[in-house]
């Protein structure tokens, strides 16, 4: 399904300055300390690699201190030969690499040795996608122009350079972060430190050169802060982790554009000690506490859901597994009995067990199921079918023909056929259900390729409102299960934008249920989830900007508890 979605504001803003285009790149700091120097960072696709060298006895040794010098660890063996190999194998296609050589010994002698050695590697020094940058001990600034074209320098200052030839020899600007802040990468920079740090970045960019801090905190919070502040080379000792994080920020940060108007219940009948006439059960598939939290924070800090006062938690383990699937969980909710994963309306031994729809139907209730999934999906089918495996779609569809349901609304599925022959009046418009006086009705959600996001997120609330009207018109007690199914789908895909949009849609449906309960005061509303999906965490965000950053730990369900909310009599 395609929607006219508003674009996510991308964090990777391309700021064009005269002289260079700002891009966020990763600098593998002290790369030689990796268990596999060069190749680990190269494989992570960093854009800059740093190596410390000592010039001793005519050799350039790779080490952090003199006492660490190992005769086998030379600049050639650890870096120049691997780089030559990478070029010969055409592993540098569509990418560039900056090799930063941090000189720890006498600048002039060491640099002369570096130049001499580099002449032995014409494929490196003549390659336009490779830059050799000298850092650490360097000759006087005015001497830079005396070195070969392929030798560039790291400038450790933000002071202006007036000589254009000298400026051309500057590859980047680098200064110590600790000169401006003691921030350890946890929490946030203080306002004062933030001002100092952004000021030095601004001054560095006045030179029209990419900028790097060294001696930086090395955490996700720090990496994101540096990206947001415009640091061009992100300094890290964790190249794989940093690349994976920074390269996916635009996928994991969303600025919410559709909102749920918060309904504030009257609480007139909440917690009343009387049996409810009607029961509305709402299941957010995959809707764990963090999914709810992310939606709250993206929705101006509150939802209709979070107005409720009766709140608890549910353990979700199935009878045969630590982590449940939707079938095992849906059956447990619908029947009150834990069962195996994949089971629909059957117990752990495979025997049919009655569900709440069947039980209440025998006691005079009308019943209905609304879902943004197909009606044969694991959660909705748990309320009318009895099969040992959720994959028995045709058999589950046949159970619908013999179900006690007076109402169903779902995505269309070709598995269901002959439904009108068993008494269901199928409506082409969901709004027609709300005024229908027929005994049994059904409808499919209309899928149109040009549907807007705003109209899409209204679907479930419109269906819920009309479904409640249909059941209430019968003047008898009723049970309605409404499922927001696709919170789970986007959790599996690790797409936070989808999770929030679907959760906004679910909250709009919750608003309709709460409004109905306030008007029909013998109505109990129960809101829960079958399980959490994605192992979602939300480390950062901005409530004022409706911005959420997400981290997912899995593409599957998790074993974490899920919340349950209730409103109305016996809540």
Automatic annotation (TrEMBL):
<feature type="binding site">
    <location>
        <position position="483"/>
    </location>
    <ligand>
        <name>Mg(2+)</name>
    </ligand>
</feature>
<feature type="binding site">
    <location>
        <position position="379"/>
    </location>
    <ligand>
        <name>Mg(2+)</name>
    </ligand>
</feature>
<dbReference type="GO" id="GO:0046872">
    <property type="term" value="F:metal ion binding"/>
</dbReference>
<dbReference type="GO" id="GO:0004035">
    <property type="term" value="F:alkaline phosphatase activity"/>
</dbReference>
<feature type="binding site">
    <location>
        <position position="530"/>
    </location>
    <ligand>
        <name>Zn(2+)</name>
    </ligand>
</feature>
<keyword id="KW-0479">Metal-binding</keyword>
<keyword id="KW-0732">Signal</keyword>
<dbReference type="GO" id="GO:0008081">
    <property type="term" value="F:phosphoric diester hydrolase activity"/>
</dbReference>
<comment type="similarity">
    <text>Belongs to the alkaline phosphatase family.</text>
</comment>
<dbReference type="Pfam" id="PF13653">
    <property type="entry name" value="GDPD_2"/>
</dbReference>
<feature type="active site" description="Phosphoserine intermediate">
    <location>
        <position position="326"/>
    </location>
</feature>
<feature type="binding site">
    <location>
        <position position="492"/>
    </location>
    <ligand>
        <name>Zn(2+)</name>
    </ligand>
</feature>
<protein>
    <submittedName>
        <fullName>Alkaline phosphatase</fullName>
    </submittedName>
</protein>
<dbReference type="InterPro" id="IPR017946">
    <property type="entry name" value="PLC-like_Pdiesterase_TIM-brl"/>
</dbReference>
<feature type="binding site">
    <location>
        <position position="285"/>
    </location>
    <ligand>
        <name>Zn(2+)</name>
    </ligand>
</feature>
<dbReference type="Pfam" id="PF00245">
    <property type="entry name" value="Alk_phosphatase"/>
</dbReference>
<feature type="binding site">
    <location>
        <position position="285"/>
    </location>
    <ligand>
        <name>Mg(2+)</name>
    </ligand>
</feature>
<feature type="binding site">
    <location>
        <position position="531"/>
    </location>
    <ligand>
        <name>Zn(2+)</name>
    </ligand>
</feature>
<dbReference type="InterPro" id="IPR017850">
    <property type="entry name" value="Alkaline_phosphatase_core_sf"/>
</dbReference>
<feature type="binding site">
    <location>
        <position position="488"/>
    </location>
    <ligand>
        <name>Zn(2+)</name>
    </ligand>
</feature>
<dbReference type="InterPro" id="IPR039559">
    <property type="entry name" value="AIM6_PI-PLC-like_dom"/>
</dbReference>
<keyword id="KW-0597">Phosphoprotein</keyword>
<keyword id="KW-0460">Magnesium</keyword>
<dbReference type="InterPro" id="IPR001952">
    <property type="entry name" value="Alkaline_phosphatase"/>
</dbReference>
<feature type="signal peptide">
    <location>
        <begin position="1"/>
        <end position="21"/>
    </location>
</feature>
<dbReference type="GO" id="GO:0006629">
    <property type="term" value="P:lipid metabolic process"/>
</dbReference>
<keyword id="KW-0862">Zinc</keyword>
């Amino acid at each position: 399904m395609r929607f006219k979605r508003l674009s996510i504001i991308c964090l990777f803003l391309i700021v064009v300055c005269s002289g260079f285009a700002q891009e966020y790149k990763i600098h593998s700091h002290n790369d030689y300390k990796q268990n596999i120097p060069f190749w680990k960072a190269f494989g992570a696709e960093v854009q800059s690699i740093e190596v410390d060298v000592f010039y001793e006895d005519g050799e350039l040794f790779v080490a952090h201190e003199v006492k660490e010098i190992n005769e086998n660890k030379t600049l050639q063996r650890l870096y120049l030969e691997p780089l030559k190999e990478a070029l010969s194998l055409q592993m540098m296609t569509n990418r560039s690499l900056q090799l930063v050589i941090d000189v720890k010994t006498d600048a002039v002698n060491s640099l002369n040795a570096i130049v001499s050695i580099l002449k032995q590697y014409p494929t490196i020094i003549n390659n336009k996608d490779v830059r050799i940058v000298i850092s650490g001990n360097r000759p006087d600034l005015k001497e830079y122009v005396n070195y070969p074209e392929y030798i560039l320098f790291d400038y450790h200052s933000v002071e202006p350079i007036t000589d254009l030839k000298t400026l051309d020899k500057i590859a980047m600007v680098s200064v110590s972060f600790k000169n401006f802040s003691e921030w350890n990468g946890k929490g946030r920079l203080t306002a004062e430190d933030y001002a100092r740090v952004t000021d030095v970045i601004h001054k560095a960019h006045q030179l029209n050169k990419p900028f790097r801090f060294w001696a930086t905190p090395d955490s996700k919070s720090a990496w994101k802060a540096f990206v947001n502040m415009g640091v061009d080379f992100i300094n890290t000792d964790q190249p794989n982790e940093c690349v994976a994080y920074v390269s996916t920020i635009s996928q994991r940060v969303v600025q919410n554009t559709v909102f749920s108007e918060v309904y504030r219940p009257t609480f007139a009948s909440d917690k009343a000690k009387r049996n409810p006439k009607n029961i509305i059960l709402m299941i957010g598939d995959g809707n764990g506490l963090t999914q709810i939290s992310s939606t709250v924070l993206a929705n101006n800090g509150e939802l209709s859901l979070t107005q409720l006062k009766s709140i608890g938690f549910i353990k979700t383990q199935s009878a045969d597994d630590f982590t449940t699937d939707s079938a095992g969980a849906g059956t447990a909710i619908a029947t009150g009995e834990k069962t195996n994963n994949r089971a629909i309306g059957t117990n752990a031994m495979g025997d049919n067990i009655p569900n709440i729809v069947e039980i209440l139907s025998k006691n005079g209730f009308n019943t209905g199921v609304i879902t943004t999934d197909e009606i044969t999906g694991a959660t909705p089918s748990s309320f009318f079918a009895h099969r040992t495996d959720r994959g028995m779609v045709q058999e589950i569809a046949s159970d619908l023909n013999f179900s006690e349901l007076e109402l169903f609304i779902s995505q269309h599925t070709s598995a269901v056929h002959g439904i009108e022959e068993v008494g269901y009046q199928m409506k082409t418009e969901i709004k027609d259900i709300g005024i229908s006086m027929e005994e049994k009705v059904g409808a499919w959600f209309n899928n149109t390729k040009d549907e807007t996001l705003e109209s899409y997120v209204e679907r479930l609330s419109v269906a819920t409102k009309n479904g409640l009207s249909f059941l209430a018109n019968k003047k008898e007690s009723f049970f309605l299960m409404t499922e927001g199914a696709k919170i789970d789908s986007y959790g599996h895909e690790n797409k936070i934008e989808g999770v929030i949009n679907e959760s906004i849609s679910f909250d709009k449906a919750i608003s309709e249920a709460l409004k109905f309960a306030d008007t029909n005061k013998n109505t109990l509303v129960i809101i829960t989830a079958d399980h959490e999906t994605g192992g979602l965490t939300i480390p950062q965000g901005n409530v004022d900007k409706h911005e959420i950053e997400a981290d997912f730990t899995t593409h599957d369900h998790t074993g974490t508890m899920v919340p349950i909310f209730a409103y109305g009599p016996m809540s």
